[in-house]
Amino acid sequence: MIFKRFILLLTLSLFLSAVSFADEGFPGREKYPDIPYISLTDFYQGYMENKYLVVDVRSPFEYDVIQIKGAVNVPVNSDSYYKDINELAKTTDRTIVFYCNGRRCMKSFKAAAKSKLSNILVYDAGVFEWAKKYPEQSVLMGESPLPVDKLIPSSKLKEHFIPLARFEELIPQSILIDVRDKKERRGNGLFLLVDKSAPLSRPDKLEKYVNKAIAEDKILLAYDEAGKTVRWLQYYLEKKGLKKYYFMKGGAKYYAYQ
Fold first, then answer.
1. How far, in Å, CA of 94 to CA of 78, rounded?
2. What CATH number does the domain containing 87 carry?
3. Tens digits of per-residue pLDDT, 103-151?
4. How many CB atoms lie within 10 A of CB 223?
5. Are 59 and 110 contained in the same domain?
6. Of 4, 55, 127, 202, which has the fewest Cβ atoms less than 10 A away?
């Protein structure tokens, strides 16, 4: 009986390990089977030998927060992406390597497919795995070598997410900003006449309201489309020294379902 129980526990452990490994896999490789990819170590070796032109396909705000040193920012969501990436390709005979945030981020594969270029690779482990392994070849908020201790863990991000009910309770004593861009915002914000538009693409507006929160010693409340973009905003707020800030859990999409 004890032996059978041991075998059962061992089998369960192996199964859970397999599930965990699958969760940490590279889904883009299956979704885009025709796009060639490169591993972290192989990418680093070629990078150090100057074999690659590295392209960060995320938004300018994300790029400014953290990037692979020497990478060129060509946002895949830009209306001029196809023109921009093909103009860039004409300037080099090196292989272009696209990257984005992490293993489940599809922007790098989307950028590669959308480029219609042939001499390309996708590095799909993402900028954070690179930064942790090679901080000397990374930049965080303008600092290089990247200070690994300043990478914000997901646990600290979660501490600043609050549910909608609590978010609404804090509005009267706070400065409230909507950090979505025009396409996502589609007109007015969620909290009519209360929230201010401060898209991450407009750092001047963002700084205005953050400075106001600091000067008036108020809470800064912020929300995005789905609770994902504020991850990058947190780096900016921490650098500014803001302590009292919260994000709406689930973002505008969650609000719309309530």
1. 23
2. 3.40.250.10
3. 999 999 999 999 999 999 999 999 999 999 999 999 999 999 999 999 9
4. 28
5. yes
6. 4
